[in-house]
Amino acid sequence: MQKVIELRGLKSEAASEPPAAAPSIEPILAVVDSLSRTLDCIKTMCATEPNGPLRDRLETERANLVIGLFVARVAAMRLSSGEQAADVSANSNLPLARQG
Fold it and tell me: Structure pTM?
């Protein structure tokens, strides 16, 4: 036999919290810009640095920046497409298909 525990008061607390505001794209674009500029600097440094431990470290940082830049750009694209979908749904009576 299983014992069921009922948590009282949690539903009313959760319902009283205001909904979170939609995230803004500006901070994400600032990160994309910063990562792009840093990546350009590291590319320049890699071009002038001879092979060795410093060059290896620069290449590692360059790879990490490429990954971070990709993630930031995907986040920006998802956020901007979400904003466009919200605008379309507000201005249209047609239902939107959502990705799972």
Answer: 0.57
Q: What is the DSSP letter of 98?
A: -
Residue 54 token pair:
């410093």
79 contact partners, CB below 8 Å, separation of at least 6: 23, 25, 28
Over residues 59-81, the mean pLDDT reads: 91
Q: How many CB atoms lie within 10 A of CB 28?
A: 20
Total number of domains constituting the chain = 1
Cα gap 60→24, rounded to integer Å: 31
Longest dimension (CA), the chain: 72
Confidence at residue 64, expressed as pLDDT on a 0 to 100 scale: 94
In a domain, 14, yes or no: no
